[in-house]
Design brief:
Length: about 425
């Protein structure tokens, strides 16, 4: 097996491991970077699940590290797993990011002709051996090509998902995948090869764009997807006001880029449908509380609107811009944030339309969208104060319905542009 430099994310030790294994039926990949506190737990839970639920197949764990500067790799190597599970800990090659880490996993699965692959995030504290069964079994039994996670999460965990990626993906492609960037997926060998062979590894897909890319490619190119209930997700969650700007830019850039790629598909879809929700975790507990800095999000919106107002006037329709200006004036007078789902859906669609038409400065467009995301998130936080998980989910679902209703607004704008 020979590779030219930079044509692969695999280093020599990974290539040697592939030669030793020759073939694997089941592979679990764990991308990681500076996760010394959680990596061993995740590896051990995965190892236990593989050994218990798949005793009669050849199986392995591939820990794909981004050059951690803490003890992540050492702790992963020390983790104890059953003897019938192979394991390797290696540093990937390529652009630093989760996507490149997963690229290495896709390549391993391709070369080992693996039938079923799962990937799990390395900061999970709620993963159990059963998760391995629930994610891999439907793939191994050829029930589906792609399994997305379905979690119970705190209402302020996953705000990029809740506020923009879930409603937009659902409206565009007509599939109600609740966690399109959930991070813990199962997929077939066919999909692993498809992912590995695509020429995207110098883009944001190599970074945080990877999850939405995987989900969107699966929806559009194999059209055999399902969800599985994994119960509560407990991980090292981030405050949307402080930690998510780079992730927002990479995820939304990728989502908008994919809209261009799959335009012929989504412009023909008018409504969404449920996808199979497979049996999984039965117990139900409340997720850990996540603290958010509401004032910082509000300040980000105010500062962003003042700084980028002229840009917003250029990229948004007059009605959308006028609505945003009213939200801004109301907040400046000391009232609460009220950037509602109706206005927010048009902000997202106007931004997608502009992205569609621009050939340059697209990253700048997503960057100036981020203050408006903070404004919508702050409005959601105010609206859902005192609500439990189920009540907040109703608000998120109603928002998704608004995005679906207003999809015709986006289609009309893009079709008119193309006719012009």
């Amino acid at each position: 097996m020979a590779f030219k430099p930079y044509e692969t994310a695999l280093r020599e030790e990974a290539i040697e491991w592939i030669k030793e294994q020759q073939k694997l039926d089941v592979l679990v990949g764990i991308p990681c970077y500076n996760n010394e506190d959680t990596i061993a737990f995740v590896v051990e839970q995965v190892g236990a699940g593989l050994s218990k639920y798949f005793p009669d197949v050849k199986k392995g764990i591939f820990i794909s590290d981004g050059g951690s500067t803490d003890n992540t790799r050492e702790n992963a190597m020390k983790s104890r797993i059953p003897d019938d599970v192979s394991k390797i800990v290696t540093i990937y090659r390529g652009i630093p990011g989760k996507g490149t880490s997963l690229r290495a996993i896709f390549e391993v699965a391709k070369h080992l002709e693996t039938k079923a692959i799962a990937v799990f995030d390395s900061d999970l504290r709620s993963i159990r051996p059963e998760w391995v069964k629930y994610v891999i079994e439907p793939i191994l039994n050829e029930e589906t090509h792609f399994v997305a996670p379905y979690y119970k999460r705190h209402k302020y965990d996953g705000t990029i998902t809740n506020m923009i990626v879930y409603p937009t993906t659902r409206a565009l492609y007509g599939k109600r995948v609740r966690q399109p960037i959930g991070g813990d997926f199962g997929f077939s060998g066919k999909l692993a090869k498809l992912y590995s062979d695509k020429d995207v590894w110098m883009t944001d897909v190599a970074k945080f764009g990877i999850d939405i890319w995987m989900t969107t490619v699966a929806i559009n190119e194999v059209n055999s997807i399902a969800q599985v209930n994994l119960g509560v997700k407990i991980h090292n969650a981030k405050d949307p006001a402080s930690d998510l700007v780079h992730m927002f830019i990479q995820v939304i850039s990728t989502m908008f880029e994919l809209m261009n790629e799959y335009e012929d598909n989504w412009t023909k879809i008018d409504k969404s449908v449920d996808i199979p929700l497979l049996k999984g975790v039965k117990e139900s507990v409340e997720p850990e509380e996540i603290k958010v800095n509401l004032k910082k999000m509000e300040d980000e919106f105010i500062d962003g609107f003042e700084q980028f107002s002229s840009f917003y006037k250029d990229i948004l329709s007059p009605d959308t811009y006028g609505g945003l200006h009213k939200v801004y004036e109301r907040k400046k007078r000391g009232n609460g944030m009220n950037l509602d789902a109706e206005l927010w859906s048009r902000v997202v669609y106007d931004s997608a339309y502009t992205y569609h038409n621009w050939s340059r400065n697209r990253k700048k467009l997503i960057n100036i969208l981020s203050p408006l995301y903070f404004g919508r998130t702050a409005s959601f936080v105010e609206e859902t104060k005192g609500m439990n998980w189920e009540e907040a989910e109703v608000v998120i679902e109603k928002q998704a319905e608004v995005f679906e209703k207003n999809k015709s607004y986006l289609k009309d704008r893009i079709l008119k542009w193309e006719e012009f």
